[in-house]
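Troubleshooting: if your tokenizer reports a length mismatch, compare your output against this known-good record of 750 residues.
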Amino acid sequence: MSQTVDAKLPGVAPEAQPRLLLTKLHPPPRREQTVARDRLVQRLRPRPGVKLTVVAAPAGCGKTTLLGAWREAEARLRPVGWVTLDDGDNDAVVLWTHVLEALQRVCPDLAVSLLPEAVGSARIVSVLLPRLVNELMEQGDVALVLDDFHRLSPGVSRDSIAWLVDHAPSTFQLVLGARSEPALSLGSLRAHGELVELRAHELGFTPDEVEALLNGSLELDLAREEIDVLVDRTEGWAAGIYLAGLSLAGVVDRKAFVNTFGGSSRTVVDFLAGEVLDAHDPATQTLMLRSSILERFCGSLCDALLEQDGSGPLLDELSRTNLFLIPLDDRGTWYRFHHLFAQLLQVELEHREPGLARTLHRRAFAWHRERGSIDEAVAHGLEAGAFAETGELIAARWLDHVNVGRYETVHAWVDRLPADLLQASGPLLHVKAWVATHTGRREEAAHAIAAAERLPDFDQGPLPDGTGSVEGGIAVLRAAFPWDDVGAGYAAAVRAAELEQPESPFWPLVCYSRGWCHFFVGEFAEADPWFAAATDVGMRARHGPVACIAPGYRSLIAAELGDVDRQTFFAEQAMQIMYELGLEELCRGDVGIAFGVSLAARGELTAAAAELEYCVGTLRAFGHPIYLANALIRQIAVFRDLGDTEAAASAIAEARATVNSCPDPGILEERLAALERSPSTQSAQRTAALSERELFVLRALAGPLSQRDIGRELYLSHHTIRSHTKSIYRKLGASSRAEALELARERSLI
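Known-good structure output:
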């Protein structure tokens, strides 16, 4: 299957989109106790030529508080977006869903209509980010803060941020908060003066700032020499100073405490229980310790962990007195602990109640599963060791995630399951085979398929996701991804149609695959009704790629039968569906083949050549030989009609190499051999007369629309419109839009 149809699996529902956590899009609210650090805020101000700003320091140094204060000040001058990263952002679809939302909230005119889930993680950099960069150039000064950047592991997400740093316009400032130096090309940026950095030693509190916190906000009334000693012992470490302040509130001999306080991160753990936790009543201590296993929490979730009521008021009260409990919204519903404080609490929890953490994770798993928050449920289930129940949840809900491009998320889940559980579960092997295929791990997918075929219940079902059986799901997978073997794909498609039923979530792919395989063995009469069904069920099941690509093949079938009217109708239907569903970037490489061939059939050879050139370039990048060879063969015919024998010869050579790489290329071998046997001697009949399509474009040029908007009106790519425009200029002898319109009026063309 091509890179477009396989980008979406069946049944895309609006509620299945990546779950947008709005709490990630705001810095923690400013607290009354927060100390102003104007000297550091000034360091973060934008400077000419700076591409990246990095605030890197260990936990507890005040990075997030500083960035929040900077954002508050900077937002008065220009738009500043904010995203707090977490482990889920290692799926690039999740990351860019939140980044685009953050930017569009502060820049309402930012028009990036293409959604990350429509592109998929593999094409974020090549398709989505160029559009974003172009839009950012129109926005003026904009900044984006990505806090907790250290949560991104090596992979597509981190690579995409590196690409943005390299290509963002000079009016865009990216600011990263991280516990360690980001794995980006900082050396080069530093050498060229394009980097601003703040490190741990620069974030340390000065004596004046410590006095403002302890004597001003906490009203401890310490002597200046006591403050100086505390700064010296903590080396200005924000977390150590604040923990000392919490403890000093109940100390009689403050001078002795200050002189003995160990303010390093190593010694803080030792006094946490005795000095900080013991300052609270037992109920609050229990709440703090047990909720420390949660990334974020609310009263209801904490009630589930504690198996009692009343957590909400306790959290509200605690948030007023403890800076380490951070509200995540303005309503006091969701909270999280400062990451360092949470780690300290987890250590103390294990000390006081050994082994309880797993039980707490299991309770959190049940709470999230009941509410449909699948990401959190799976994460807690894996931490709890509840692998069987978590595997059942994954097998039932995986389609919701991959339908919106989140293959990497599901792949990571399956990878964390025990090997013996995975190898014994047909539904989970089915999931693994699909997501491994989608993420380019063909060998891994083959192993999963082989393991599934060895299971005694391989042909039994239905599966939790609605598939008829593991055998049926694997047959659909093989039919949808024939790669380079039409015969194998044909057999799989026939078997899939036997095993799956119209109510199966995979039925749109079954219809499409049956049509595709019939088409590529030359059975056009058999292919057409399957493509018609694919269009219908694809629209009803919200499977956009199937719905728009299937009419394209019906157009190619009409071309085989010499029916130009039907050929044109279906080609334009495919384009219309593609535009209506916002799938231009995703599906143009497939739909454009049919549209280019239909243009050639109407004598619009220049436009046809431009359209097919775009398609070949797109398909060449995705490693599906059958699709590429088909596009090249269509391109050869147009090159010959244009009299461009050199381009035709080059396309023939590439098509031959591509076809030879396929064990079974279907009818493409015969088509290519016929072209090779009959080299064209035809020369293009070049004429100054404008084609019908060029006249449409010329008339549109007389109006207010841009070339890009004209393309949308006519269902043509911007590249094709440019080609039409160049041809119009050449035929009219013009060098500009204004001159072309003037000459056209003189000749009564408009």
